[in-house]
Fold these 2 entries.
Entry 1:
Amino acid sequence: MSELPPARGFSAGNFGLKLLRGVRVVVRTISIRRVTVFRLTLTRSFSKMDLSHLVTIGLWPAKRAPLSGADLDYFAQHGVDKTIADLIEQLAKQKPADPYKFIAEAASKLAKSGGGAQETAPKAEAKPKAEPKAEVKAEPKAKAEAKAPKVDSRAESRAAAAPSAGNGENDARIGEVGTAIRELKEKLKKDGVSSKDINDNADVKNLVAELQALKAGGGSGAPAAAAPKAAPKDTAAPKEKAKKAPKTTEVVAAKQPAKGGGMDVKKADDVPEWYAQVIMKSELIEQYPVKGCFILRPWAYKIWESIQGWLDCEIKKMGVDNCYFPMFIPKCYMDKESEHLADFAPELAMVTKIGDRDIDEPVAIRPTSETAMYAAFSNWVQSHRDLPVKCNQWCSVVRWEVKQTTPFLRTREFLWQEGHTAYADKAGAEKEVLQILELYARVYEDLLAVPVVRGTKTKAETFPGADYTMTVENFIPATGRAIQGATSHHLGQNFSKMFDITFQDPADPTGKKMEFAFQNSWGMTQRTIGVMIMVHGDDRGLVLPPRIAGIQVVIVPVGIKASSTDEEKAELATVCMEHYMALSQAGLRVKLDDDTTNSPGWRFNHWEMKGVPLRIELGPMDLKKGEFVMAKRNVVDPKAGKSTGKLATLVAEVKQTLEDIHSEMYQKALDERAPRLVSVDEWKDFSPQLNQGRLVLVPFCGEPDCEEVIKNMTKEEAQGDEEVEGGLRMGAKSLCVPHEEKYNLKCPTKCINPACKCTTVKKRVLFGRSY
Ligand SMILES: [Zn+2]
């Protein structure tokens, strides 16, 4: 398709003209097979989104053929552009107080006089529209169409950058195209075109295709290939072919197997295989030829961004600033802090060569950034006025795991955030440790709908170099194993003494006494996503909690049969689009999947596999009743998961349902965990409970040596199927000393280890097999 030549009074580039101060005229052609809709829209550039200030005038049917070079000649011959240019000129000359009224009246006159080009088409009834119109982008149709895929990816990256932010530009454009569809149809109808021909009209289909491309930018991980593919084909299609198109589509759809997703293995039968399938089939993960490293596909990264967006906002409220430190740790830092890095040494990746020559001083790739950051902190902190220092970085770290790696849960490189802070006072630092712990708990509970146990690590499990480590611990019901969710460490003065992070003691009258800063470090990783998959996923695939789902709602038009009238089809498409827009504008991440190359059943499975929390089904019958069907992904029984809503209150009902889904998912996970978290007072019950996939709350003295004994005993008493990779039996380790008193009921004073002499135990400690 070629572009319209610049009409008089228009700039060629954008087909817009600055008319009066703050008022802009935008012309757009929706070209195409039978009718060329030539629209002139006024916008006020200072309030582009104020739809009440938009006036649309003039719909001129031009020619029953795709817009071509011949059309341009046709326009020139028949004065279409001249008509508008004249109007613009008049506007510019007269500068009417109310340009909208002026244009409306002019349009009305034009319509009466048969203005514009009319040859084969019936007489136009250019009517000033009373209702507000969506914003028009100053871009000719042809150009916009060619750009469609790009618009997509831009929109996607925008959505990614700001998960909760709306996509105003895209929405406005969607609104524009949606309006154009309705107007085009009205127009065709008034022109006496039969409803069948209207819906066979390639114009309509083209516009729908454009909408698809735009919509896909609303948060879809799936490519919007359908739109760009369909558009040129339909545009070029001869009339006969276009007429047949809808039927062909239906037949093709009907012939396709109703798949689109589906797992080959049940979660209960083989968790590792199930997990491997879920993450591949739901398009979260792609394999990569470096062992233990995986590609996070957009569908996964969107989840990470949601988590990141929320947490980043929360830590900023606490005064934490983001920064970035180099990924390479120099040898001099490693030497400085032997104990801390020694713990990471077996997993430390070193750069020892550049090209084929050895480098003089090998550098490590950060497994964590304490050493890198604290050397800098030392320079930054001179007086107590320089404190607190609160830094965080979002980055990846490398720990060259020798154990079996599992995407998200245990990988050699992983994404995380690491917060590092330094305080003048211990109390301030300790308060922060708990605040951060609570944020981590909320990531799991409020975003991922996964319950956690908040607690403190035993000595044996404390982070190397920390005074103490606080943790949130998750439970995976399918395997009966625990998994550490995130940790917040109080480092005391251990690192500040090593890295000389000191300040003058303000209380000292001589001003000479130096104090060491009190420090914390805290981190949360992409493991969050793995835990969420493990806890919520089911035999149909991924189940995403609404607050982090890349797409929260998918709308699937249903009930279109070979016998459906074109009117029914058109109405359904329009209503689906309206609701898509309404939900998008309400801030929800929505996908309208009206790609008829796949059957509705295929699409159901596809989005279920990908875990989209809520599906809206809309069919002709629903429209008649003013209703829609909602299907909740989190409910296993398809019938029980369905409910009916009223179209009039769609947005409110969808929002409420998403909240309900979150609560239900959380409650379900909690209910599954509750009977698996048992108090055990004597050793004889320890392994039997553990071997049934439970976590045990036991009286424990807290000593590392004693813990080692327990670990070994549980390893010996493990059942045959409790093997980790390599045929080794897995023992239980301590997970945490829970903070909440409800986990500490009737705690015996004797340590659970029969050989342990300790009889002054105060707290139950959570033990379990863990990832
Ligand atoms: Zn003990």
Note: The longest strand covers residues 481-492.
Entry 2:
Amino acid sequence: MKYIISWVLRFIPRKFIQLFAHRLIKIYSIFLTGNKVYCPVCDHSFRHFLPYGRLTPRENALCPSCLSLERHRLMYLYLKNETSFFTEKPKLLHIAPEYCFIERFEKHLGDQYITADIESPLAKVKMDLHDIPFEDNTFDAVFCNHVLEHVKDDVRCMQEIRRVLKPTGFALCQSPQRYDLATTYEDASITDPREREIHFLQDDHLRIYGRDYGTQLEKSGFTVEPVNLIEKLGLKESQRMALPLEEIIYVCRK
Ligand SMILES: [Zn+2]
């Protein structure tokens, strides 16, 4: 299974995966009935999660019911436990919307919920993050996860997110990060796709952020609060929900 998933991620265009993969995986989920792991996003338990990843697939990562990964479950827990997201109805701009969240957010927020992306078939508004087509101070929340490592000018995109955020709002802009790197790493001279994958995790990543990611976000004017929810939840809960081994949530405010 792990090699099939790795092959699909490498060779099938992402938009086809987003449109069709969940149907096949849902069918497979009947073979994973059990109680060892729990997904807080869809409220289902399984024997284990599915493996996921391109280079070396990670065991126990993908929820077969809602397709959440470790980082999605962590973000969902942050919203549920640490914010008023689910008790109020914030106006949300969700950039590059993750499949596991769309239906849930839509049900909760109705027309307060706007999905946007430059190419994702899951998004309703087509837009370039360098030039967001909304007025200043429009949204109570902006989510833009695993996007900034792909864009040409990441600081400009962060500034755009900050611009459309209300002064009372917050943004979550998580990106792949290597905690063993002190500073963010870019090298345009590496052009071989395989080499780029080794250096930047994916060949279409323009950079890999280091431990300075919070400082990078602050370059756009954001005030950034790092939250270590994994530590707060403890090892047992983190393992039961297969959360990331290490991930700081950077809560960005105006
Ligand atoms: Zn799930």
Note: The mean pLDDT is 91.
